């Protein structure tokens, strides 16, 4: 099948090219993001392959339909960026990669916590400058803390297994409680109790209308003073303005984010020679207790292999008219 591949990075190409010869598919790699101006690049292809910040709204779906696109193969797990109803209306199927090394994202969440807790990012810069003073590097133990996990799906479960090893108490909230997690010792509680009890809160639920701005001024008020907040899920789970206020008044003690509400215009680009126009991310960078990574939690060798293989398998299943086990449908 001929596939128009959007938002291509060198690591995508390297990983997909390894598995491509056996797949029988042909990929046209475009560096451009998918939008209303670039969708026409997909002419002559039967499918498109897109990533998290390729927003596919009704107008783009309509254009895809005119171009003869029959399948959208997401090379990511989240699908909040797609108008599912518009796709269904034009009978364009959507497939995704539901789980690609959930451990990759869970381990990154732990990396954010450990970095914030032990200030290794500051220590790294200090010693490279022959500054071996440890003043100001006092951290905190993870052991013995209560960790709140919002969403115990594939990534949340992997995260719970990690923090269990650190000797933490784990409280969680999910719409569906997981028996294996209960056996591990995870205690499911209503959301407000998770907020109230946790020293560290890690978000692992998808972005939906229900979870949009889950972290806002009133939910932050329910949390412990000095709470550490970690988000590797989707930026808009957090109302950035409310979090900035809470950092200023020290209600939030630490913030570690791999995703950002307005990341679409910033992340995955080298803007080092440009003037930052986004006031909120610029403000976040001024706090010494904030750590931002640019949506890289998924980026491990193992996860990239799984993404490539599952995406190519999804394309093959569609081409052969087989059942689409990774299909996403409007509810
Ligand atoms: P998953 O579908 O396996 O699990 C999501 C869990 O969230 C489910 O158990 C679901 O019941 C729960 N949930 C849904 N609505 C909820 C709510 N209102 N409150 C509490 N829990 C709720 O998904 P996953 O593979 O664990 O991924 C979680 C999210 O991580 C994805 O939606 C995606 O946005 C994000 N993600 C980020 C990266 C990254 O690189 N930063 C990579 C992959 C996934």
Question: Which SSEs are present, and which pair or pack?
Answer:
Layout: E1 2-5, H1 10-23, E2 26-29, E3 47-50, H2 58-67, E4 71-74, H3 84-89, E5 93-95, H4 102-118, H5 120-128, E6 146-150, H6 154-165, E7 169-173, H7 179-184, E8 187-188, H8 191-197, E9 200-203, H9 217-221, E10 227-231, H10 240-248, E11 252-257, H11 279-284, E12 290-292, H12 301-319
Parallel strand pairs: 1-2, 1-3, 3-4, 4-5, 6-7, 6-9, 7-8, 9-10, 10-11, 11-12
Helix pairs in contact: 1-12, 4-6
Nicotinamide-adenine-dinucleotide binds next to helix 4 and helix 6.
Question: What can you tell me about this protein's structure?
Answer:
It is built from 12 helices and 12 strands. By secondary structure, it is an alpha/beta fold. The protein has 2 domains: 2-100 and 300-319, 3-Layer(aba) Sandwich (Rossmann fold); 102-292, 3-Layer(aba) Sandwich (Rossmann fold), CATH 3.40.50.720. β3, α2 (58-67) and β4 form a beta-alpha-beta unit. The model has no long low-confidence stretch (mean pLDDT 96).
Descriptive key words:
331 residues; alpha/beta; Rossmann fold; 2 domains; seven-stranded parallel sheet; five-stranded parallel sheet; 36% helix; binds nicotinamide-adenine-dinucleotide
């Amino acid at each position: 099948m001929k596939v128009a591949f959007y938002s291509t990075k060198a690591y995508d190409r390297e990983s997909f090219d390894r598995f491509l010869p056996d797949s029988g598919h042909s990929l046209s790699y475009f560096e451009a993001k998918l939008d209303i101006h670039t969708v026409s690049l997909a002419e002559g292809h039967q499918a498109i392959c897109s990533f998290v910040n390729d927003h596919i709204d009704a107008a783009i779906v309509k254009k895809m339909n005119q171009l003869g696109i029959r399948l959208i193969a997401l090379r990511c797990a989240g699908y909040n960026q797609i108008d599912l109803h518009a796709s269904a209306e034009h009978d364009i199927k959507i497939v995704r990669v539901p789980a690609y090394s959930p451990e990759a994202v869970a381990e990154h969440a732990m990396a954010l916590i450990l970095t914030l807790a032990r200030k290794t990012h500051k220590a790294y810069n200090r010693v490279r400058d022959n500054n071996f003073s440890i003043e100001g590097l006092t951290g905190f133990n993870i052991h013995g803390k209560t960790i709140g996990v919002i969403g115990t799906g594939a990534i949340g479960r992997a995260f719970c297994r990690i923090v269990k090893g650190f000797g933490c108490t784990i409280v969680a909230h999910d719409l569906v409680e997981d028996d294996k997690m209960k056996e591990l010792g995870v205690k499911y509680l209503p959301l407000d109790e998770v907020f109230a009890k946790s020293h560290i809160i890690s978000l692992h639920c998808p972005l939906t209308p229900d979870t949009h701005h889950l972290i806002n001024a009133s939910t932050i008020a329910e949390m412990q003073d000095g709470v550490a907040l970690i988000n590797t899920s989707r930026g808009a789970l957090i109302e950035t303005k409310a979090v900035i206020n809470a950092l200023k008044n020290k209600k939030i003690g630490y913030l570690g984010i791999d995703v950002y509400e307005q990341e679409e215009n910033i992340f995955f680009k080298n803007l080092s020679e440009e003037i930052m126009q986004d006031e909120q991310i610029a403000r976040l960078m001024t706090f010494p207790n904030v750590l931002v990574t640019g949506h890289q939690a998924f980026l491990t060798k193992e996860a990239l292999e799984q993404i490539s293989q599952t995406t190519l398998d999804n394309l093959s299943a569609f081409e052969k008219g087989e059942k689409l086990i990774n299909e996403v449908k409007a509810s």
